Amino acid sequence: MEIIWTFTLLMIPGVVSSMSVTGYSGGGVTIKCKYDKGYTDNKKYFCKGQESMCRDRIRTNEKYKWVKNDRFCLYDDTSSAVFSVTIRDLRKLDSGTYQCGVDIIKEKDSYTEVKLKIITGINIKPLEGCNSQTESLQNLLEQIENITAQELPLATVTHVWNMVLNTSGEISESSSSVSQAVIASNGNRVLNANEKVISTLVKPTDTKKSQTESLQNLLEQIENITAQELPLANVTYALNMVLNTSREISESSSSVSQAVIASNGNLVLNANEKVISTLVKPTDTNDSVSFTLAAVEVEIFMVGSSVTLDKIPRLVTTNCSVDIDLIGIAKNNNETRSAAVAFMSYNTMENLLKPDFFNTSTDTIKTMMSTVISITLLNTTNTKLTKPVNITIKHIRKFDPDGSLYCVYWNISEWIVDGCSVLKTNSSHTVCSCVHLSTFALIMQTNRGTSCKPSESDSLLDILNLVCVIVGLVFFSLALLTFVLCQWSPGVNNVARINLCVSLLLAHLLFLLTQQFLSLIRRHQVLCAVISGVLHFLFLSGFVWMFIEAVLLFMCVKKLSQINSKRRGVLSSRFLCVIGYTVALVVVAVSAGVHPKGYGSEKCWIEMDKGFIWSFRGPVCVILALNMILFIYIIISLTSTLKNLNAEVSHMKRTKSGSSTGSSSEVFPVDSN
């Protein structure tokens, strides 16, 4: 078996200090060394050894021309600030440490270290020249097609696959002078060669463990791709392999742990993003790439520094679309003024990223209502969004009006809702708004039960709840009318009682209406969140007014002994109203600022998880504790005051009785005779 081995490596000084390169005896390697654009006129060289004792193998000041020195060739492409070094007819003695160097006058040269390892024992056909990339690729593909081995080691397959993709990527980057027929021919042969090489990894086994290992090995090979750009044919081939392998694993994953499934999902997402990023090409204005496979639809849009569009068109796939301010993001990238976004809609990814990974406090049935959607910024330094992203999602399953819809995103091992909300929804589509980019989905929760009809106990509980709320509304209304219409003594302050009734009346009325029309309100997440915030405010106001009434009662009891004191309230009505409503408003405002997504649960109330419910429970507990303290003090004070009053009244009665007896003796003197 004869194989041409060509390994292409991008090396960036200051970023990669050392890189290991493997070559095979008789073959060749091509190393691409990137340098700072300020040194385009400087000499470039490739030497063996450490920096202080490095012996030149080739050194030149030529630009855009292959320079040869024995088995070493160097080509300096100043337009891209990259020089390439090719070593032909590799030998065992070539192993060692090399330096990609830039000759800098009066300063220390710029180096990038390369550690080269040569493996012997494999028959390799030597390279005939330095710059025949297309011929080298064709020779390589011909010899891959002649492989007769049924199985090859993973290390060998990895090197072959990397070499084919990287070499074809180099050709595609410089394909302006190559005919379209040659490019198409190379693409077809690359696909066939990759399929032939990958087939040598297939071993007779049916264990799920080996399937998972095969997927992980495949994803590791993708991670090792060093080409900056790849042809579309290579990208679609790699995506098909990854998604098909992951689908086979998910279909037989009944005995695989949830953690392993989630881990495989993360690996697949990362690998797909890596492959898709190789389709991004530099542009001054704008460009786009789109394609559709059996398992995924992909839309890529790129903008450059000279883009003339006011906004990019909506990115659309069969089941979803997205609006994103890519031009605003590009303007925030001060270095390049460019940005690229990839929009992917997966048809089978829910088999890995299952809806059951959406953890909630209640035991409900989770249903995936959409395809899994991935939105990511590619080759973009500043990924901060200028405005929220709106995603219009088509329902892929029947919509249940009694269910609760959630816009969620994938966070390592679970679906969560942080940063995403439902803007609006109907029976066929839902619009989600998110403040960050990630992998998204639409999940519906429905109550778990054996039948769609609610149980008899639930129905009785709902009826009892409805009756109690209505009775409460009636009595709150009667109390409010009593305080407002009846005439009261000027010394009686009813401000706290009136506002207490108003707060509880409005809170119970809003609660009743919300529960009656919950299925309609839940379709509008923003409205549901607003209602839960208003309920939070009204109920808290009711408790604050209870505390104010307790304080007023305390002040009244303290003045019982002061008979001649004026019966005017110390606190004005206006001041009481400010206190009664401001305290509740501050609590709600702080709660919304700290955790905005805490409002808008399934029942349009406060979320019970993550401790957010304590934004209501906490103030209520404090108020109840203070009221209890005031109540105990009032009872003790009232008891003491009444005892003193009783003693004074008894003393006054005895004094009055004695005075009456003395007066009678003076008016009617007793005759001693």
Second-tier CATH architecture of the domain at 463-636: Up-down Bundle
The CATH class designation of the domain at 463-636 is Mainly Alpha
Major sheet: size, sense and barrel closure?
8 strands, antiparallel
Rg of Cα set: 40 Å
* Secondary structure category: alpha+beta
| Spatial gap, N to C terminus | 162 Å
Number of beta strands: 23
> Which stretches are low in confidence, meaning pLDDT under 50 for 5 or more residues running?
1-16, 450-454, 563-569
Share in β-strands: 15-25%
Q: Look up the CATH topology of the domain at 463-636.
A: Rhopdopsin 7-helix transmembrane proteins
Given the C-alpha coordinates, what overall shape results?
elongated
**How many individual helices?**
13
- Give the CATH H-level superfamily of the domain at 463-636: Rhodopsin 7-helix transmembrane proteins
How would you state the average pLDDT, rounded? 78
Helix content: 40-55%
Characterise this structure.
This protein is an alpha+beta fold and 673 residues long. Among the domains are: 1-131, Immunoglobulin-like; 463-636, Rhopdopsin 7-helix transmembrane proteins (Up-down Bundle). The chain has helices spanning 133-145, 154-173, 180-199, 208-223, 232-251, 258-277, 326-332, 456-485, 495-516, 518-521, 525-558, 573-594, 614-667; strands spanning 8-11, 18-24, 29-34, 44-48, 55-60, 67-69, 72-77, 82-87, 96-102, 110-119, 286-292, 296-303, 315-316, 320-323, 339-346, 364-368, 372-378, 389-394, 404-411, 414-416, 420-425, 429-434, 439-447. The strands form 4 sheets. Strands 11, 12, 15, 16, 17, 19, 20 and 23 form an 8-stranded antiparallel β-sheet that branches. It has a 5-stranded mixed β-sheet with strand order 1-3-8-7-6. A hairpin with a 2-residue loop joins strand 6 (67-69) and strand 7 (72-77).
